[in-house]
Amino acid sequence: MAGLLCAVPAQAYKVYIFTDMEGCSGVTGGEHISGALKEDGKRLMAEDMNACIAGCFAAGATAVVVRDGHSSGSNVNARVVDARAKLIQGPTPKVRYKELDGAAAVILLGYHAKALTPQAVLAHSYSSASIQGMWLNGREVGEIGVDMAIAAEHKVPVVLVTGDEQAVAEAQTWLPEVGVCATKRGTGPQSAELIPVEQSHRNIQEATAAALRRRAAIPCLKISYPATLRWDYLPAGSLRTHNPDFRPVANPRRVEKTGPSVEQLLLGH
Ligand SMILES: [Zn+2]
Fold it and tell me: In angstroms, rounded to a whole number, what is the distance separating the alpha carbons of residues 119 and 260?
């Protein structure tokens, strides 16, 4: 009798959503990040979070942590974020992924392509003001590849990446099995052809649920250790790398570090 009444308990699992702003639905350039449309940019970021959170719960997640990860780490208005998720805001010195451990899956939401990627909205690698490019074990890398490596160091696979078409294509070059959801087509560093925002939200929700349902088939990124991370730094006063007038400098200041953890290399340099 009891056996008939008791539903099979669903497997409890946590999803960790690391959110950037540049790749969110409806964000087309610097105006949304720090200009006249800044408040709209924050709202758009929160709406992509909510679409993703809804997809997580639709796929049976029992806990969702959403990290506000752009710039200072305090962008979205907490009142408009789906209260079923735990929102983490603010800078977390020395820890990029606060509360990642124990998650079954990571989602990189609203990401952007690596510095100097053509036709990519707001492409940069950690600092548009000071970094011309980065390399991981000799391969040019941006935030997507680095964050996949860090997630793997926590033994959690990245199952979905959302952003413009170039960002999601970059994700697939690192991990062919990763789920992707394009939010727009970049036409330059400060312009895009947009998917209607409501449609993009539906796409994110569906892609999230689909990626989580097949999460067991998505491996962690594998890289060899000790790992080497290289930074090419721009001279002071350079244009930002996502300024349409930016031109690469011939002799950037090169810094290279080798160690047992990409996370330590990234945060400790
Ligand atoms: Zn950002």
Answer: 34
Q: What is the pLDDT of residues 223-256, one digit of tens each?
A: 999 999 999 999 999 999 999 999 999 999 999 9
Statement: residue 1 has pLDDT above 60 = no
Pick the CATH number of 12-112+142-221 from 3.40.50.10780, 3.30.1330.60, 3.40.50.1820, 3.30.70.120: 3.40.50.10780
5 CA to centre of ligand 1 in angstroms: 48
CA 83 to centroid of ligand 1, rounded, Å: 23
Question: Which pTM value belongs to this model?
Answer: 0.95
Are 52 and 17 a contacting pair, CB within 8 Å?
Answer: yes
Beta bridge partners of 185: 193
Q: How far apart are CA 165 and CA 183, in angstroms?
A: 7
99 CA distance to ligand 1 middle (Å): 20
Domain map of the chain by residue range?
Answer: 12-112+142-221
pLDDT tens-digit map of 8-49: 556 999 999 999 999 999 999 999 999 999 999 999 999 999
